[in-house]
Automatic annotation (TrEMBL):
ABC transporter domain location: 2-231
Protein name: ABC-type multidrug transport system, ATPase component
Keyword hit for Cell membrane: no
Residue ranges that the Swiss-Prot or TrEMBL entry lists as coiled coil: none
Organism of origin: Mesotoga prima MesG1.Ag.4.2
Keyword ATP-binding: yes
Domain of life the protein comes from: Bacteria
Listed SUPFAM superfamilies: P-loop containing nucleoside triphosphate hydrolases
Sample GO molecular function, one term: ATP hydrolysis activity
């Protein structure tokens, strides 16, 4: 469902993403992890057609991003790390704007939106978006993304700004969607979320994919059968020694 071949993005002399290869199946929840600045958000922006790669190819459901961008846009939904919405519109006006843009059936789509709004306790659709908190915007963006029932949903730090109840409901909804064939590509710094949710995990560092597989695969590959994902992540990205030095410092204190 998602295929990237030698995906590369340069900003001047900086190589933000370096020859990345991905092959993600239909119905899979794929966790894309990495330290700050590793290239996660840049990768999502390329996979969703927001920016173009410097090199490489992208295919979504077999469609070539270079040739079939508009058709791909109809298949995917995106929840960015910073919700970008028209602040002079009310929530419901923004929802109807999205319905118009994607030419969705109004009655059916609003019914789905209302169900999601009830689940996430979105009771502020009549208020102006400019008055929303980050968490309120995030919940509405999630509801809008899911109401479209996309073939692929991309989520960049989706639980940031969500309360514990909403984050838990989101995890259940994404699992149900994946079980019904939707592909989920998500980044998160909350490694416990990735450990519980993701079918496979890819770890990127300095623009390069340095590890990939199921949690069991990663534990076997790195000889850490009893490790948590957090411990594996720190070892794989080279931050394990930093953690030990910090713990040692705290012990001395």
């Amino acid at each position: 469902m998602i295929e990237a071949r030698n995906l590369t993005r340069k900003f001047g002399t900086l190589v933000a993403v370096d020859r990345l290869n991905l092959n993600i199946a239909s119905g899979e929840i794929y966790g894309f992890l990495g330290p700050n600045g590793a290239g996660k958000t840049t990768t999502i922006k390329m996979l969703t057609g927001i920016i173009s790669p410097s090199l490489g190819e992208i295919f979504i459901d077999g469609l070539d991003m270079q040739k079939d961008l508009m058709e791909i846009k109809r298949l995917i939904s995106v929840v960015p790390d910073e919700p970008k919405m028209y602040e002079n519109l009310k929530g419901l006006e923004f929802v109807k704007f999205i319905i118009d843009v994607y030419r969705l059936p109004v009655k059916e789509t609003l019914k789905k939106l209302n169900n999601l709004a009830e689940a996430f306790k979105i009771d502020y659709l009549g208020k102006y978006i400019g008055d929303y908190s980050h968490g309120m915007k995030q919940k509405l963006m999630v509801a809008i993304a899911l109401m479209r029932e996309p073939s692929v949903v991309f989520l960049d730090e989706p639980t940031v700004g969500l309360d514990a109840s909403s984050a838990g409901k989101l995890r259940i909804l994404l699992r149900n969607m994946a079980d019904n064939g939707t592909t989920v590509f998500m980044t998160t710094h909350v490694l416990e979320v990735a450990e519980k949710m993701c079918d496979r995990i890819g770890i990127i560092d300095s623009g390069r994919l340095i590890a990939e597989g199921t949690l069991s695969d990663l534990k076997e590959s790195f000889g850490r059968a009893e490790s948590s994902l957090e411990e594996l992540f720190l070892d794989i990205t080279g931050d394990g020694e930093t953690k030990l030095s910090i713990e040692g410092f705290e012990g001395e204190a």
